[in-house]
Every structure is written in structure tokens, then in C-alpha cells.
Amino acid sequence: MRWTQRVISAASKEWLNSLGYEFRMPEFLLVHGAPKNYFEYILDKAGAARAFAATDAPIVFIGHTHIAEYYGLEPDGTISHKHFQQGGQVVLEPGTRYIVNVGSVGQPRDLNPRSSFGLYDSDKRTVDIVRFDYPIAKVQEKIASAHLPEALARRLLVGR
Questions:
Q1: What is the band of 57 on the pLDDT scale with cuts at 50, 70, 90?
Q2: Which of 45, 48, 79, 121 gives 20 to 30 Å between its CA and that of 35?
Q3: Does domain 22-158 have CATH number 3.30.310.50?
Q4: Following CA atoms 40, 129, 78, 35 in sequence, which dihedral angle do they give, to the nearest 10 degrees?
């Protein structure tokens, strides 16, 4: 964070500060960590239950934990959960609400070093979690040349 504060331009900082903590559309909500508790980590079903209670959004897209996974609030109140360490697809069932963590493009933390992102198709009612390789060695070189902690570069190889 200190490194970013040193290198970020004033214009970029101003733009970032102008953004809201939520982006809401009728059928989904985008937040960093959790609805209303924007930097909370959703790591288990209890955390997902708190997040579901904080919003009425049918689908919540998050990324704070950098772990590709989803939680589903079933019509009977139970919460389902599935990891997408290798990618995969969520078929959005009618009546079920979802919290989908799309993972991370640059620092996945689910023991898979490949990048991860989500592709939402509102017509098909699916979310595809896509995993792909990226040039980790080049990123590690950039981390070293920026004099960032070596641990940040090492963790990229193991996705942790």
C-alpha cells in the first residue's frame, strides 16, 4: 500500500477516490469484499450468511479473498458452496441468490497460480470462472525491480 501511495498519480488517486464502494444493477451487485462491510472477507458459510442479510441483490460479485468460489442461498435458507480452483460454471437457479467470488487476475490465493475471472451471461443465467496462465516470471521480475517484498513474488508460484 505504501508503494502504491508513492507511485500513483494525483489524477489516478482522484479518480479512485471518486468511485463508490458499490456498483448496483437490477440483477447484480459488485463490491470488493461484502455488501455494506466492503473489506470483510467472506471465507465461510457464516460470512456468506451475513453478506446475504446485508443486501437484497440476487447476485453479488466479489473478489477480496482472491479465491474463486460461490455461495448459494437456497429458497429453503440453506447455503451451498463450491470452489472453482480449476475454473468451471455456475448455473444460476431460479429462486437461489448467489455470492460469486471471481478470484484474481494477478494474485490468486486458492493454491492455483493461474489467473481467474468471471464471465456473467444474464441470458443463459450462468457465470463462467475462467482460469488461464500468465507470465508469472515477468511479474516477479517487476516486483523485484520495484523493491517490493520478495514474499509477494514467491507467492505467485503457488497461488497463495
A1: very high
A2: 121
A3: no
A4: 30
